[in-house]
Amino acid sequence: MHVLDAPIRDYAWGSTDLLAELQGRTPTGRPEAEMWLGAHPGAPSLAEVDGRAIGLDELISADPDRHLGQAARFGRLPFLMKLLAAGEPLSIQAHPTLEQARAGFAAEEAAGVPRDATHRNYRDDNHKPEMIVALTPFAALCGFRRTEDSSATFERLSAHMREHADGEVTEAAAEVRRLHLLLAEADLAGAFEALLTPGSVFRRGGTAEVVSVIEALPDLEALEPELATALQISRVHPDDPGVLVALLLNRVDLVPGQAIHLPAGNVHAYLHGLGVEVMASSDNVLRGGLTAKHVDVPELEKVVAFEPLPVPYTNPEQVAEGHVLFRPPFEEFRLHQVSPDGRTVPVVEANGPAIAVATRSSVEVSCGDEAVVLGPGQAVFVSADETTGRPLRVRAAEDGHAMAHIATVG
């Protein structure tokens, strides 16, 4: 078992207090967005080995059969786990399929694009299906709404714009009307492109014009919840057409313990909250808006699945008292949520590599004769050779209800 020292990424959208509150420390005052728990070369966790710290990727590559067991077939630790703390909306984004990732990565390698270049789209050759389990109330945009619903929203917005302008039809108002008609014909791709394409009116002041009309609406929260979400996002990104892309997407509000999973092609954006995120080990993100990072709309459109979908909730399976399992439809990972108290000692059959992180109070994680105590936000990597035939046991290390999340191979 190797205790991990995990890097915290300081992306601009990160919360200034959520991770600090989890860990019981004083906030730094700077954004703290993601704590990476894994072996992705972009920010590998450091593993404690014989009193020294080495990258978890280096540790695993030195003896993959021992550390990964049957998961060595993936060619890497197949999952990446994160504590994600969103204080502001993340980018409008989607992830490629495995085939798209391999092709995109190979093309950029052949073109000589440096892997750390800000304009690079494909950081690695892997896909990135993912799942988020809420630790606090958590809001997200996830997948396309039914086109008839988003068409009706743009139709109402078009009427409000005409009323606001005393019947005058501005360029932005005409485009909003066109979006209504595109969606009435179920043309999601056309509406998406009309909003995000370079040179669109929504990139030339049109978004701010629409937002000003939304702000003038009475009883906004009760009458137009989708518009209310767009207005909230506009407080951070007032001129970004991603504000209006939000009107195409499902708004999801999770309570602690609820989860959603995001397959390739699902357009999404997390809005705020703290959660445990698990994904295939990749950093491939195609962005379309709500970010200062590289945006490549044509490449994003290649990977997006333009079809309305119900919200992909991941319902937990009750394994035993104090132990539930989130099993999304991906082979790289599953996630165990264990809540030990003085009466329960949840047991996790990993039979492969595992990463456990304490997410409430302190826990003792043991495997065979070895045990470590983790404070909130601390994590441990357990190799496949340790878990094969030996379950992981989780105990509360102090009075009160504790919680840990354990990522294992799916």
From TrEMBL:
Gene Ontology terms, MF aspect: mannose-6-phosphate isomerase activity; zinc ion binding
Superkingdom of source: Bacteria
PROSITE patterns for the chain: PMI_I_1
Residues bound to Zn(2+): Q93, H95, E130, H268
Active-site positions on this chain: R287
Residue ranges of domain Phosphomannose isomerase type I catalytic in the record: 4-146
GO cellular component: cytosol
GO BP terms: carbohydrate metabolic process; GDP-mannose biosynthetic process
Cofactor: Zn(2+)
Catalyses which reaction(s): D-mannose 6-phosphate = D-fructose 6-phosphate
InterPro entries (UniProt xref): Man6P_Isoase-1, Mannose-6-P_Isomerase, Pmannose_isomerase-type1_CS, PMI_typeI_cat, RmlC-like_jellyroll, RmlC_Cupin_sf
Keyword Secreted: no
Keywords attached to this entry: Isomerase, Metal-binding, Zinc
EC class name: isomerase
EC number: 5.3.1.8
One family name in Pfam for this protein: PMI_typeI_cat
NCBIfam families: manA (TIGR00218)
Name assigned to this protein: mannose-6-phosphate isomerase
